[in-house]
Design brief:
2 copies of one chain form a homodimer. Chain A is an alpha+beta fold. Chain A has 7 helices and 4 strands. In chain A, a hairpin with a 5-residue loop joins β3 and β4.
Chain lengths: 203, 203
């Protein structure tokens, strides 16, 4: 297997952290430089027509894209420790929270970064009004996470799951998006400090 | 179990079609009228703080939100016919395609509808520039699907999966979003006609 990797970008990091939390060694890494648009070349487009990173190339040549699809594949090959849940209800609740965070907080932070950061002007047709609309929604997304963490050590209970990786990466991504985390989010701060101290978080 | 349902909206339909394709009878339906903002009331917000439909209430009172989380729960209780794949690689490829369509075509069509349709002005802080940006991306998303369907009867091969439900609903949603499907998309037209003729599609 080979992992086409995108360095510090959030989705490549999510996958590398997932491997680390599973205790599965990373496959051979193939760095793809997004700043020089290597993910838009004809060769890369053949591998992933959606032109996104990361991509896991399986030994039979199959190109598997989409962060969560790659994580689920790793989980299926190495079930323990389970990061997607081990029964129907737990699995569904983890899927729910992972999606809530992805489609809410993570998506809004990404929108602010992609549509307002000067470094992204080259790669995106920026819509500043969309960055602004997402900036205004940020507090609602943060409160949803804050309230959930008030009753739980991790997003879905006493153990780390894929939803924590998604949420932690979203909080990390606020820094390059120039979005400060207000002091009132004490549960998020407590939980994020614990995540950041895990060895996996250096991945 | 109870299913809090939102009528003709795309995500409630995805879940009802999923039940029908699984051959699982729908639970008791509780209609929630989004036009009169019933999904924004205090009671509904207690059930789903993200204020979205549908929500499956389990017999123990757990509220399970997010379309795909509900579908996965149904799949876990009733594995056959499998709509999420039955081995690691097939499951990952279906997850990849479902996400590609959700985050690409479905998300763009939704953005056009939500940010340009006059009926949505009451429910959304509309950003017309975002509707326009998504309208411009539509052809790219459609080509990704067209090329995949050129070699496959359904999105992921010879059998219908959850990715077909997501993609078919996205194509249906183009009508209220006032986005015509150009004649050149012959594979999409062939596949969508076959989907629309299935009994499940009336759900």
């Amino acid at each position: 297997m080979k992992l086409y990797d995108g360095g510090r970008a959030p989705n490549p990091r999510r996958v590398r952290i997932f491997f680390a939390e599973k205790g599965v060694p990373l496959p051979e890494l193939v760095p793809v430089d997004m700043a020089s648009k290597e993910h838009k070349t004809a060769d890369f487009t053949k591998l992933n027509p959606a032109q996104r990173l990361p991509v896991l190339e399986l030994d039979d040549g199959t190109a598997l894209a989409e962060t969560i699809a790659i994580c689920r594949y790793v989980e299926a090959l190495h079930p323990q420790p389970s990061l997607f849940g081990s029964d129907a209800k737990q699995g569904a609740m983890i899927e729910m929270w992972n999606r809530r965070i992805e489609l809410g907080l993570f998506s809004s932070v990404s929108a602010v970064f992609r549509h307002s950061h000067p470094a992204m002007a080259e790669l995106e047709d920026q819509v500043p009004e969309w960055a602004e609309a997402n900036r205004e929604q940020l507090d609602d997304h943060l409160w949803l996470l804050e309230l959930q963490l008030a009753g739980n050590e991790f997003v879905c209970g006493p153990a780390l799951t894929v939803a924590d990786i998604t949420a932690g990466i979203a909080i990390d991504f606020m820094k390059p998006a120039k979005l400060p985390l207000p002091e009132d989010f004490v549960q998020i701060r407590r939980w994020h400090a614990a995540l950041s101290a895990r060895p996996s978080w250096k991945a």
